[in-house]
Amino acid sequence: MTETTGPRPGASPDEQLIAYFDPDNRADPYPVLAGIRQASPFWAMDGALLVLGRHRDVETVLRSPAASADRSASRILSSDAVASRREVMTFLDPPDHTRLRGLVTMAFTPRMVQNLQGRIREITDDLVDQVAAAGSPVDIPGVFSYPVPVRVICEMLGVPAEDHKVFGTWSTVLGRALDPLMAANRTPDVDREDTETRAAFYQYFRDLIASGGARGDGLLARLVAAEAEGERLTETELLATLALLVMAGHETTANLITHGILTLLRHPGQLAMLREDPSLAFNAVEEILRFEPSVQMLHRMAKEPIALEGFEIPAGTDVLMLTAAANRDPEVFEDPDRFDITRAAGRRLEHLSFSSGVHRCLGANLGKLEAAVALQAFVSRVRDPQLVEDSLEYRPHVILRGPERMRVAFSGVDPVRRGAVGR
């Protein structure tokens, strides 16, 4: 593991936050996050931003009706960043958010998600076969983790198989636009790539719809029908929602699967436990979400004052919530830096990796199912997996954190063994 480059001893909260944003700390940000959590709440960026890291504070804001996802009045986002997200569901408040979310929710009900389990198993088994074909060592993100959610969401939207690969590329580019670190270091070439990617993505779906690709009763067909009814979903809202589904359904789940494999390899006792009892797969996913969340932070605006314990957030404040710090809060989780796949057994795990309140991730159940099936397939079939430590390379992204490259050596791959994922 790369050694964390922490702030100097006695560093101010601002300096700790700067250290957290340092790409050199992406492999292990948690020592820095612990210091930020202990110092929070605190003002950063010359008082323009309030930083929260304690679980109780983060959850309070996420559940507060006074916390707005509309960041058009933000003092820390550029006008271009705000304009590019104006129609995206996750940047809207009710009633617009409620309307858009209601149109998409029908594809992510527990029953609809459970009906996808068989197909997800087929996809993951096929990709484990590709791991075998690639040979040892294999790059896990490229061959396994990234293709799983791309294929699932593309099939849900009716995207032909030959186009799945380009969707993975588009998703990565679109996800970059959400990241404050990447936004702060933009170049004309990056801006041009983002603009061209979004235009290509939108035109692809216009062409797919025009050619009859939205027939049937799938997710795309339902969204197009809603757009055709008028006043419920405009074309811009339709295309922005499709971009969100592809990006959020891909990047976060891919990072969850990669981090799951990485963390299990670093905890061989837990790996052996999961291999012995595959029914622990969902418990393992919940613990991975807490221990190594794909989404590290969330941003809200206080429309009205929000009361915390011993502190009031003034109206008009930009609030940065470090969910990755909250997920290791010792006030909520016993021995929070210990990885334990039995931690969630028999009780609700209070991690905040899917947000909370009205903006809780609507694809949470699908992402957890994909990750559970993928981990079960990998653990049960790939023999003697070992991390090639010097191969681990993280993307610089600070919000959607995950390895870009991670090679794993193995001695062989067993044939498919059928069995329920369990819950």
What do you see in this structure?
- Helix content is 50%, strand content 9%.
- The longest helix is centred in the middle third of the chain and has 32 residues, at 235-266.
- The relative contact order is 0.17.
- It has helices spanning 13-21, 30-39, 55-63, 79-84, 96-105, 110-115, 117-134, 140-145, 147-157, 164-176, 180-184, 188-210, 219-228, 235-266, 268-276, 281-291, 323-326, 364-381; strands at 42-44, 49-52, 67-68, 138-139, 298-302, 306-308, 311-313, 318-321, 382-383, 386-387, 393-394, 403-405, 407-409, 412-413.
- A hairpin with a 4-residue loop joins strand 1 and strand 2 (49-52).
- Helix 9 (147-157) packs across helix 10 and helix 14 (235-266) crosses helix 16.
- The chain has one domain (13-74, 93-413): Cytochrome P450 (Cytochrome p450, Orthogonal Bundle), CATH 1.10.630.10.
Strands in their spatial order, largest beta sheet? 1-2-8-5-3
Approximate strand percentage: 5-15%
CATH first level: Mainly Alpha
Report on the biggest sheet.
Answer: 5 strands, mixed
**Helix fraction bin:** 40-55%
Features:
three-stranded antiparallel sheet, Cytochrome p450, single chain, 18 helices, 423 residues, alpha+beta
